[in-house]
């Protein structure tokens, strides 16, 4: 019986120490490879917000060109999150200025995490990364933008729980380990009660 308990503890310990694998992608259509804004909500000025070909893609075949004129447009998604959990957030962004009026804001859960204005100048695709904490079971990611003549380019938007989160397989292993320990202890206790009964008989 002792061997069974030790084996169960070993399985549980393995589950606790097993490194987490890549976590699930939370963003739908983050690379815009569907050819449209499926999974995204467009609000504000949307007439110059388009999915375009390889000329505006960071990877794959397509990317998003964001060019609201004389006002702002917004591209957003609401993600299912765990309060208190941290998330790795990343996206690729490029700027093609022409007129001096352009702006870009990235928001997480209503808070602004990146704000670029007319002084940011032109730049090719650059990786933006953040580690952010969710405060609710639903977290909105949003990109608000204006570009009066040319475009911002956006591609490869990604949100994943940080790697310290156990995957489903790890949780299953933990539960099986604890269940085996509980069953072994219960059987051991039942055996001792039977032994006491035999002594009194």
Rg, alpha carbons = 26 Å
What is CATH's topology name of the largest domain?
Answer: Jelly Rolls
| Helix-strand pattern | HEEEEEEEEEEH
**Beta strand count:** 10
Based on Cα principal axes, name the global outline: globular
* Residue windows where pLDDT falls under 50 for at least 5 positions: 1-20, 166-172
Distance between the termini: 25 Å
InterPro entries: Galactose-bd-like_sf
Organism: Sphingomonas limnosediminicola
Protein name: PEP-CTERM protein-sorting domain-containing protein
Keywords: Signal
Describe the structure.
There is one protein chain. The protein has 201 residues and is an alpha+beta fold. It has 2 domains: 2-18 and 166-200; 41-161, Galactose-binding domain-like (Jelly Rolls), CATH 2.60.120.260. Helices cover 24% and strands 38% of the residues. It has 2 helices and 10 strands, in the order αββββββββββα. The model is unreliable at 1-20 and 166-172 (pLDDT under 50).
């Amino acid at each position: 019986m002792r061997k069974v308990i030790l084996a169960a503890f070993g399985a549980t310990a393995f589950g606790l120490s097993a490194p987490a694998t890549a976590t699930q992608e939370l963003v739908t259509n983050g690379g815009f490879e569907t050819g449209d804004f499926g999974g995204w909500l467009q609000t504000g000025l949307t007439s110059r917000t388009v999915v375009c070909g390889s000329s505006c893609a960071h990877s794959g075949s397509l990317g998003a060109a964001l060019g609201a004129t004389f006002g702002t447009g917004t591209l957003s998604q609401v993600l299912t999150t765990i309060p208190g959990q941290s998330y790795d957030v990343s996206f690729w962004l490029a700027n093609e200025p022409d007129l001096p009026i352009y702006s870009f804001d990235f928001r997480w859960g209503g808070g602004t995490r990146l704000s670029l204005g007319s002084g940011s100048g032109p730049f090719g695709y650059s990786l933006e990364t953040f580690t952010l904490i969710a405060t609710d079971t639903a977290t909105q990611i949003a990109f608000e933008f204006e570009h009066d003549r040319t475009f911002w380019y956006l591609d490869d938007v990604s949100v994943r729980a940080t790697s310290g989160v156990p995957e489903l397989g790890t949780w299953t292993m933990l539960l099986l380990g604890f269940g085996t320990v509980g069953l072994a202890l219960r059987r051991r206790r039942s055996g001792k009660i039977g032994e006491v009964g035999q002594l009194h008989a």
